[in-house]
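Q: Structure tokens for this one, please.
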Amino acid sequence: MTNEKIKLKMENGQTIEVVVFSKRADAIEVVIGEGIHNMKFTLTPTRNGMAYVGSIKGRELVYERSREKVQAELEILNPQVRGPRAR
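A: Here is the predicted structure, written as tokens:
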């Protein structure tokens, strides 16, 4: 099983790679660190929907992808979610 990894931008311009724990259009839960030193936090969409923002230990992290692009990725990965229900 492979873990999905995304790159987040920190306040100072550096990028950090984190593992995605769960991904929905309204929130992305990510895990930073490994082993017993890991921490989980949530990224939520900004007001204009152009990025996801979260903070951990006073540091703000940004995932520069729009809500529509994340929704499109989710529909591609699992097309059964949006399909009509069989009767």
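A few notes: The radius of gyration is 14 Å. DSSP finds one helix and six strands in the chain.
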